[in-house]
């Protein structure tokens, strides 16, 4: 026995159990004189049947025979889809909140137009062209918010 095995055996005697029974299978194989050609978990399997091993196929067949077709993976996908749908609705609502700013901006532009024309009626035409320009900018930001909201809802 080498020194590690001696230390393990000594600690096992102190604990009242065999060191090789306490050790995991890889350690046990290392400290015993078993066959050197044993199959370990690090060697590739001899199964060349495809993606699923025989154990996985056997488990799937037994689950199908017992009418257990829904597994954890199916439930996880359903929960994930529900969370994705809720996230889409929340994101679209948050993006549509930009329409509030557009409405406020348009109201401010035309309110200022009325105030400006009331103070100086001679500048009515020039103020109206500036108001239309401000209305276009405010409406564009609202349309961008609406476009992002629809992209969140209906894209992907």
UniProtKB/TrEMBL annotation:
Say which domain of life the source belongs to. Eukaryota
Q: Which SUPFAM superfamilies match?
A: F1F0 ATP synthase subunit C
* Primary localization: mitochondrion
- Reply yes or no: does the keyword Membrane apply: yes
> Could you provide one GO biological process annotation from this protein's UniProt record?
proton motive force-driven ATP synthesis
The V-ATPase proteolipid subunit C-like domain covers which part of the protein? Answer: 90-152
Q: Name one GO molecular function term.
A: proton transmembrane transporter activity
Q: Where does the record place it? A: Mitochondrion membrane
| Pfam families according to UniProt | ATP-synt_C (PF00137)
Which PROSITE patterns does the record associate with it?
A: ATPASE_C
Q: Tell me which UniProt keywords the record has, alphabetically.
A: CF(0), Hydrogen ion transport, Ion transport, Lipid-binding, Membrane, Mitochondrion, Transmembrane, Transmembrane helix, Transport
The protein's matches in InterPro entries, at most eight in alphabetical order, are given as: ATP_synth_F0_csu, ATP_synth_F0_csu_DDCD_BS, ATP_synth_F0_csu_sf, ATPase_proteolipid_c-like_dom, F/V-ATP_Csub_sf
- The transmembrane segments are 96-118, 130-155
The GO cellular component terms are:
mitochondrial membrane; proton-transporting ATP synthase complex; proton-transporting two-sector ATPase complex, proton-transporting domain
Coiled-coil spans are none
Which PANTHER family does this UniProt record tie to the protein? ATP SYNTHASE LIPID-BINDING PROTEIN, MITOCHONDRIAL (PTHR10031), ATPASE PROTEIN 9 (PTHR10031:SF0)
Q: Which family does it belong to?
A: Belongs to the ATPase C chain family.
The name of this protein is ATP synthase subunit 9, mitochondrial
Q: Which organism is it from?
A: Lachnellula arida
Q: List the taxonomic lineage.
A: Eukaryota, Fungi, Dikarya, Ascomycota, Pezizomycotina
């Amino acid at each position: 026995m080498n020194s590690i095995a001696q230390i393990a055996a000594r600690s096992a005697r102190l604990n009242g159990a065999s060191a090789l029974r306490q050790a995991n299978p890889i350690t046990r194989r290392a400290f015993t004189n078993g066959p050197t050609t044993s199959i370990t978990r690090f060697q590739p399997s001899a199964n060349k049947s495809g993606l699923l091993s025989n154990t996985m196929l056997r488990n799937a067949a037994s689950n199908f025979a017992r009418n257990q077709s829904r597994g954890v993976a199916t439930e996880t996908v359903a929960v994930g889809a529900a969370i994705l749908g809720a996230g889409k609705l929340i994101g679209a609502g948050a993006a549509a909140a930009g329409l509030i700013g557009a409405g406020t901006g348009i109201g401010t532009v035309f309110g200022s137009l009325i105030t400006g024309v009331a103070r100086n009626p001679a500048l009515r035409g020039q103020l109206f062209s500036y108001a239309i320009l401000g209305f276009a900018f405010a409406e564009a930001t609202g349309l961008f918010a609406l476009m992002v909201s629809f992209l969140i809802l209906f894209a992907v």
